[in-house]
Amino acid sequence: MKNLTLKDIAAALNLSITTVSKALKDYPDVNTNTKERVKAYAKKVNFTPNAHAAFLRTQQSKLIGVVIPRLNHFFFSNVLRGIMKAAEEEDYMVIVLSSDESYELEKKQINRLLQQNVDGILLSIADSTHDTKHIDAIIEQKIPLIFFDKYSKLSNCSSVVINDQKAAFNAVEHLIKQGKKNIAHLRGPLLPQNSIDRFLGYRKALEQYGLEYRKEWVFTCDQISNEEGYAYTQEIIEKHPEIDAIFAVADMPAVGAIKCLNEQKIVIPDQIAVMGFSNWRISNLVTPTLSSVNQPGIKMGEKAFELFYKEQQLIKKGESVVYEKIELDTKLIIRQSS
Amino acid sequence: MKNLTLKDIAAALNLSITTVSKALKDYPDVNTNTKERVKAYAKKVNFTPNAHAAFLRTQQSKLIGVVIPRLNHFFFSNVLRGIMKAAEEEDYMVIVLSSDESYELEKKQINRLLQQNVDGILLSIADSTHDTKHIDAIIEQKIPLIFFDKYSKLSNCSSVVINDQKAAFNAVEHLIKQGKKNIAHLRGPLLPQNSIDRFLGYRKALEQYGLEYRKEWVFTCDQISNEEGYAYTQEIIEKHPEIDAIFAVADMPAVGAIKCLNEQKIVIPDQIAVMGFSNWRISNLVTPTLSSVNQPGIKMGEKAFELFYKEQQLIKKGESVVYEKIELDTKLIIRQSS
DNA sequence: CTGAAAGCGCTTACAG
DNA sequence: CTGAAAGCGCTTACAG
Question: Which of A67, A308, B108, B331 pairs with A122 at a CA distance of 20 to 30 A?
Fold first, then answer.
């Protein structure tokens, strides 16, 4: 069964292609009867217009591209779900590409999307991305670009993010209010803005509550893995027995920390409290359950799509676009580990 | 900066559109010099052919569609990675859609993909899918369809799967060889084939080793959640103190079981051993670590794309397609819980 | 070796 | 209210 075309329908109903096309799109200048005949027939034969032919005229592909640093990542899966849900409502479909945290791959993927004529690109930049030429190329082509979660301060476009600094501040503040005074930080890599911001939130909380900041209590998890969390916690136990709480840049290192503490029979949270970040499913499954900061991934995805859609509408109408930066609220989830 | 077209290049180089097009595609009947001029210029101005216009002629969109039951799922994320990796090598891009385990949504998503003229569809069917009319519609349109992981026995097409029955058999056999005699099974929902097959593997292992099968030792986890695993384990402890091992249909219920056993101070694996299925990242993070069956998700994705690509090549050449069923090897991962 | 022309399937300005 | 025609940007059979 070949796909039907407007021509086939026109022939079957003894109408012109023009009229069939107009009828299907509810143009006001088509006889109501004709419209109904056409629509009924189209439905009967299950006609769907050829998207590519339509693109050639309308310049709209009804496709957006999403580039994320990692596919296999609870948070980004959630963002993707949000994007796909919002996209579906406007009859958009989503091409998903992963940069694997690589700058080169990110560049390549963006080029592929541009070549496919997607109507917009939603991007969370890779940790290793250090310049923005490839990003500026999108903006030059007047294709809406929306950042989510990890963004570049250098590019002029809309974004939907969380306030990492504030979220980290709140998390550390909670530890302090639990009576903790010597708080270590398992930080993320040095480059990404959100890892920097979480670190800054940590420092700010210490400062505001009159606690001393000590460089040697900060450990860099380049892979943000549980192995790193495990190893650094081992080091903490051996070399820094005064430490009574650990704030991790993400849940994975925090889970590693819990594992190490459990094995060493150190009581959580009484001796050492642990706080994660991102509220992965796993935080609720470890023993003791892990306190964390919830990032609204699904909502972030929905908002990102909505921003894209709004921009596109403005561009279509020829109106000027005002870039927005949406900051979503995070929420402290207190569990047994703190 | 508008996108350039063949026309622009032809004008700039004083050639015809035909020649430019041929030169870029390395047609043999174009002067080598001309070819080089064209290619150099195209590169300079960063020309990329319009994919939609090309489709209208070639009927190839260089797009495939993937429909998975759940996006936020470690195993399917891995499959997706495999698909995307293999697709990238053939310059394909992937439209990802989720059926959310809903039959209706699955139907809808497939229709959307068909409308977008994807070159092929890779599908893992929803638990609630009970008929295959929507699937047959794909096959009728002569678009390659490949099943992965969850398939329908009723449809005639290629698939890449694991042998759930055998994998479950091996897992239970291992428990038996550890000296366990009264093995409970936390099974999945009644409909999906892989949940049935894992149950059958469980029964077969009991049978083969002369252990009695007892209906009341089988518990159905409709959500395949850790909460169900937790609750059923509670029930096992209270009502079936003779049980000395639990084989779960997936890691989530197994993790719930571990949590319950930990809380009740039941020693794992000495008093009760636990075996999961799928080898999620989490199985390595709980205490004790969870034994499980590794499903080669990435490889499954790669194979699924390769099957699609092979079929497409055959169709293009007008040769007849022979459907294949690829069965990938699983691997028993023994950790502390067994 | 080069190029004019048809056609893929749509949309839409225009004529009647 | 209906329809002929142009054109979106390609590819390719055909002519020269």
Answer: B108
| Stretch (H or E) spanning B18 | helix B17-24
Considering all nucleic acid strands, name the nucleotide whose C1' atom is nearest to the C-alpha of residue B5: D9
Backbone region of residue B249 per phi and psi (left: phi > 0; alpha: psi in -120 to 50; beta: other values):
alpha
Rounded mean pLDDT of chain B?
Answer: 93
Task: Please say whether the structural domain B58-161+297-330 has been given the CATH code 3.40.50.2300.
Answer: yes
How does DSSP classify residue B72? Answer: S
Please state, in angstroms and rounded to a whole number, the distance separating the CA atoms of residues B180 and B245: 6
pLDDT of A293 over the 70 cut: yes
A147 beta partners: A123, A159
Superfamily holding B164-294 = Response regulator (3.40.50.2300)
pLDDT tens readout for residues B203-227 = 999 999 999 999 999 999 999 999 9
Report the candidate in A297, A324, A301, A300 with the shortest Cα–Cα distance to residue A144.
A324
CA distance B70 to B76: 7
In chain B, which residues have pLDDT < 70?
1-2
Q: pTM score, two decimals? A: 0.91
Residue at A136: amino acid letter: D
Q: Which of B165, B240, B220 is nearest to B197 (CA)?
A: B165
From-to residues of CATH 3.40.50.2300 in chain B: 58-161+297-330, 164-294
Query: For the residues A150-163, what does the mean pLDDT come to?
Result: 89
Q: Which two tokens stand for residue B46?
A: 């960063």
The set of strand D positions with any atom below 7 Å of a protein CB reads: 1-5, 7-13
Read off the pLDDT of residues A164-197 as tens digits, 9 standing for 90 and up: 999 999 999 999 999 999 999 999 999 888 999 9
- Identify the pLDDT of residue A2: 63
Measured from the CB, is B57 under 7 Å from any atom of strand D? Answer: yes
Rounded Cα distance, B64 and B145, in Å: 10
Q: Which amino acid is at B214?
A: R
Nearest CA in chain B to A70: B81
- What residues in B contact A84, CB-CB < 8 Å? 71, 96-98
pLDDT at B287 (0 to 100): 87
Average pLDDT over residues A89-94: 93
Given CATH 3.40.50.2000, say whether it is the number of domain A61-161+297-328. Answer: no
